[in-house]
């Protein structure tokens, strides 16, 4: 076993808090065990399999009329008493909350625009770059809530795919001491199983001052990738309830409309886009970059493209400063977002969020793995410039963009996808989907199509194996434990691991040691799980000698 470092020892002390492999949201879905192979050999079938898993997850909403009624009752009372609705999430659910707040702002009259406030671990900066260092800290969830001015008469909706995220549970617990309005906790695992797995979750569910509901769905299309179906269910449910507050459209109507549209949409229409973007990614020269462009669907597009980086070990969006000069191309994001019609970073962020960004300045004890404090203040948020200057700025960095992907809602019930050369009005390819006129239905279908397209594109370029997230970046406790489980699964496949030792003979400590060594040794874009296997192979060879 490799020498143990401080971070390894620290994780071992608290590992019991993140042993979550038994949760449904962390298990493998048997229907997608060969998804990576389908991405290579039968993209159309991969699209259909992904579609079926999504529809089955959303079907569970049809039986949630009573839950929606109870939530709506508490939300109406809160607004009627001049209280505000706060929403908190982490990672994908944090971005989900920000999408819902932005959608609310487009629908609400001016008097109600500020009555929904969403936040995530790391503040609005985390919309662009994941901030795993915040997610394991319960105290930061509570502190963030207080800094936003949560007070008596306000209500909190705590959204966590698995139900165990410390940051979210910390905000939830603090809400019970700041307001007499009972907060809600929503998650996608059976409550009893969750309580048996995570003591912090059990404590929240046993608190009489907290209301909660579990959405019981099957495992994700990618093992543990809760940005997919778990987030789809939570976004559709909470979004439909928020929409009824403004339009009186019943949640069950909206759930049925979403499902009806998904049944009628042909997911294989996206095959040409998947093939085109995958080809651009596999192009090793400086022209192998893409540009996503959107105005009306910008925040949904940004959410999906942001989540590619931690999920598939891609370079994250770079700031304008990081792109200065001609940095190594491997450090630059393979795609970027441009919001047409915006002339500055400030304009672009206002278009994204419908408001000025809200940074969260962390306490002094929040330190990144490189030993530095997170630089996530307003100026750092604005350093991600999504205005019309993107193409010119990236060209100055040595990037030649070969493919522009335009995604826009059309005025009457449509959603258009189109590809072209960045400076050409003539499309290579385009397709249109019927998405209805409801704001949450449109956002739900957009999310589904983006998730499908990005996931299968990553499968096409080999960024997951079977349905295992072999390229995920382990940036928090849950992801480190998932990486361990991924390595153990790969060890049971000798043709892949090339390790002859009995996979069951490896202790968790041995595998964790390899994972931590891999986290230190990987280069940009390398998968930690596969690097850990390489380390185990080397160690085995050394031992034999």
Instruction: Give the termini separation.
Output: 15 Å
Uncertain segments are none
Radius of gyration: 22 Å
- Share of residues in strands: 5-15%
Largest sheet: 5 strands, parallel
Shape: globular
Class based on secondary structure composition and strand pairing: alpha/beta
Helix content: 40-55%
Number of strands: 10
Mean pLDDT: 93
Read across the widest sheet, the strand sequence of neighbours is 2-1-3-4-5
The number of helical elements comes to 22
Number of domains: 3
Structure in words:
With 545 residues, the protein is α/β, with parallel strands linked by helices. The chain has helices spanning 6-14, 35-41, 43-59, 65-80, 92-107, 132-135, 138-147, 166-178, 191-197, 199-205, 229-247, 251-264, 271-282, 298-312, 345-353, 378-382, 390-396, 439-460, 477-491, 494-497, 508-521, 528-544; strands at 85-89, 116-120, 155-159, 184-187, 211-214, 289-293, 337-338, 401-409, 414-420, 427-434. It folds into 3 domains: 6-28 and 468-544, no CATH class; 36-44 and 267-460, no CATH class; 65-214, Glucose-6-phosphate isomerase like protein, domain 1 (Rossmann fold). Helices cover 48% and strands 10% of the residues.
């Amino acid at each position: 076993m490799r020498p143990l470092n401080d971070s390894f020892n620290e994780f071992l002390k608290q590992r019991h808090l993140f042993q979550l492999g038994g949760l449904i949201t962390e298990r493998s879905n048997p229907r997608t065990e060969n998804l990576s192979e389908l991405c290579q050999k039968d993209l159309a079938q991969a699209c259909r399999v992904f579609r079926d898993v999504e529809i089955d997850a959303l079907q569970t909403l049809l039986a949630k009329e009573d839950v929606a009624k109870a939530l709506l009752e508490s939300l109406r009372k809160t607004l009627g008493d001049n209280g505000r609705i706060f929403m908190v999430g982490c990672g994908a659910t944090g971005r989900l909350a920000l999408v819902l707040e932005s959608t609310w702002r487009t629908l609400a009259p001016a008097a109600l625009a500020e009555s929904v406030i969403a936040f995530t671990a790391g503040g609005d900066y985390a919309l662009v770059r994941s901030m795993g260092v915040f997610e394991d800290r319960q105290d930061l969830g509570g502190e963030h809530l207080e800094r936003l001015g949560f007070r008596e008469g306000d209500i909190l909706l705590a959204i966590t795919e698995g139900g165990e995220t410390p940051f979210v549970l910390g905000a939830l617990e603090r809400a019970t001491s700041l307001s007499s309005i009972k907060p809600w906790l929503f998650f996608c695992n059976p409550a009893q199983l969750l309580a048996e797995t995570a003591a912090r979750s059990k404590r929240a569910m046993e608190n009489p001052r907290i209301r909660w509901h579990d959405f019981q769905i099957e495992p994700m299309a990618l093992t543990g990738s809760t940005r997919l179906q778990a987030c789809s269910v939570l976004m559709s449910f909470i979004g439909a309830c928020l929409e009824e507050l403004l339009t009186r459209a019943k949640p069950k109507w909206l759930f049925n409309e979403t499902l009806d549209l998904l049944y009628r949409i042909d997911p294989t229409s996206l095959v040409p886009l998947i093939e085109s973007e995958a080809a651009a990614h596999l192009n090793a020269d400086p022209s192998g970059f893409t540009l996503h462009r959107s105005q009306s669907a910008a925040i949904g597009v940004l959410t999906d493209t942001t989540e590619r980086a931690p999920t598939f070990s891609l370079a994250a969006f770079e700031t304008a400063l990081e792109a200065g000069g001609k940095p190594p191309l491997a450090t630059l994001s393979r795609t970027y977002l441009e919001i047409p019609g915006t002339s500055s970073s400030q304009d672009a962020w206002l278009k994204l969020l419908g408001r000025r960004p809200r940074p969260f300045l962390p306490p002094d004890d929040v330190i990144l793995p490189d030993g530095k404090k997170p630089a996530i203040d307003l100026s750092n948020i604005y350093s991600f410039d999504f205005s019309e200057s993107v193409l010119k700025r990236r060209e100055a960095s040595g990037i030649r963009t070969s493919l522009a992907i335009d995604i826009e809602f059309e005025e009457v019930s449509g959603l258009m996808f189109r590809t072209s050369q960045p400076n050409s009005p003539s499309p290579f390819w385009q397709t249109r989907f019927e998405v209805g006129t409801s704001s949450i239905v449109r956002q739900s279908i957009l999310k589904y199509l983006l998730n499908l397209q990005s996931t299968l594109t990553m499968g096409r370029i080999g960024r997951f194996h079977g349905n295992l997230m072999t390229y995920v970046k382990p940036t928090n406790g849950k992801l480190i434990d998932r990486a361990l489980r991924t390595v153990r699964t790969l060890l049971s496949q000798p043709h892949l691991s090339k390790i002859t030792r009995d996979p069951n003979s490896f202790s968790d400590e041995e595998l964790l040691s390899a994972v931590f060594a891999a986290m230190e040794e990987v280069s940009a874009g390398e998968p930690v799980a596969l690097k850990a296997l390489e380390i185990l192979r080397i160690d085995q060879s050394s031992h034999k000698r």
